[in-house]
Amino acid sequence: MRLAPKIFLVSALVIVVLSAAAGWSLLAVQRLVTVNREIATRSIPALRLQGAVRESVRSLVRLEARALVLRDEDYAAAWDRRAVDVTETLHQLGTYLETVEERAALGETAATFEEYRQHVEAERHLVAAAQSGTALKLAEGPSREAAQRVDAALSKMTAATEAALARAQASARALEERTWRTVATALLASVALALAASALLALGMTRSLGRLTAATAALAAGTWTEPLPAGGRDEIGALSRSFNRMAGRLREVERLKEEFFSQISHDLRNPLASIRLAAETLQDRAREAGDAKQGRFAYLIDTSATRMLGLVNEILDFTRLRAAAMPLDRQPIDVLKAAVRAMDEMRPLAEEKRVRVDLAADGTDFTALADESHLVRVLVNLLGNAIHFTPAGGAVSLHLAEIGPRLELRVRDTGIGIPAEALPWIFEPYRQAHGRRQGSGLGLAVVKGMVEAHGGTVRAESEPGTGSCFTVTLPKMEAAA
């Protein structure tokens, strides 16, 4: 089956299963919301009304005392109105109370409040009969006790309501936990089912694409050897077969190219060495004969042959690095001494271009297990590039630092910099950031290969018009041992 119908069927199944889980989750959440709404619409109003009754009773006691002492009809009328409000509020409370304890406390509160009302009525009759002393004793004795019993009954009611609220909240929390547990279980089960349905398709696709990705990376690194399994009948199988054909062809082309460069390089080294020897002989004879013109020509021949021999050596080294056949004589060396050698070798070129070169070091131990000649060549390449792309009056610095178990060498210049679009491929072979200039385009590729052969890394940072910085890190002796 092709990929399109497979993906459609699996996607449809996943959507159906997840939609069912979402619907179940919404129903469970709705039940939880209903329970919480019932708590909010019963317990909270009940507690609010109970607080209002308690405050009203305390206000009644104060009004009672003022009406009794001052014999003011306004206070008596206010007491009557407030008492009616309390009675109505107690009646309204009955619609919110559900438990036996709450209703019992409500009955006790109503009874004691009625008793309190009767005491107040008795006080008024005594005052009307000119028995104020007896009325005052009644107010300070039985009447006050009745008011206190009303307050106590209200406290019982409040405690019963709060206990009922606590039980309801605990029940709601338990329901909430069950709801979310059920929702999570349903969701996980749905996801597991959907994943199980898509596992075969996803696993097959990821395996095939993973093999294809690994083969592509190996092909880019030059280490690809075995063809991909391509037995599938879908698009990935067809892609794998096409990749095998392409990779085989590319490997053959790469092999022929490397053989050609290697053979040409070997064939060129001997004639170039002979040309250099002859040019040196001609320079000696020109100096003896005092023929400056002939000496100049011999010098040009020697310089050109030297440059061509350097290019040939770069090609040979790059070919060896690609084939992992670069001979390394790794011994404990002082990297600072190697940096001094490279700096001394490049100082004449820097003086010729009027570029200042500096060397600095931070640390105490710069010992590394490396091939000194190759390390010097890495630094010479980086310094040569920095000097070449730095205008007169600029500066090039080589900084060596000891950073934990590694050594860091930074070559920084104040030159023209590297375009941002060129940085990602600056270490690729036969590529030059500033167009075709002198050189083979292999210098930085050889640098990268030699550094990695020593277990190190190299990276480049640059800002056009400001300069570039190449950073090489190498393991120290204790880290490499």
Can you offer a commentary on this structure?
With 481 residues, the chain is α+β, with helices and mostly antiparallel strands. It folds into three domains: 193 residues, Lipoprotein, type 6 (Four Helix Bundle (Hemerythrin (Met), subunit A)), CATH 1.20.120; 88 residues, Signal transduction histidine kinase, dimerisation/phosphotransfer (DHp) domain (Helix Hairpins); 150 residues, Heat Shock Protein 90. It is 72% helix and 10% strand. The protein contains ten helices and seven strands. It has a five-stranded mixed sheet. The chain has a two-stranded antiparallel ribbon with strand order 1-3. Strand 4 and strand 5 form a beta hairpin. Helix 4 packs across helix 5, helix 5 packs antiparallel against helix 6 and helix 7 runs parallel beside helix 8. The longest helix is centred in the middle third of the chain and has 90 residues. The relative contact order is 0.06.
Query: Helices and strands: which structural class?
Result: alpha+beta
What integer value in Å does the Rg equal? 48 Å
Strand content: 5-15%
Uncertain parts: none
Helical content stands at over 70%
Individual helix count: 10
CATH topology of the largest domain: Four Helix Bundle (Hemerythrin (Met), subunit A)
Give the biggest sheet: 5 strands, mixed
Strand arrangement in the largest pleated sheet: 2-4-5-7-6
Backbone shape:
elongated
* Top-tier CATH class of the largest domain: Mainly Alpha
Q: Give the termini distance in whole angstroms.
A: 55 Å
Question: How many E-type strands?
Answer: 7
**What's the architecture of the largest domain, going by CATH?**
Up-down Bundle
Order of helices and strands: HHHHHHEHEEHEEHEEH
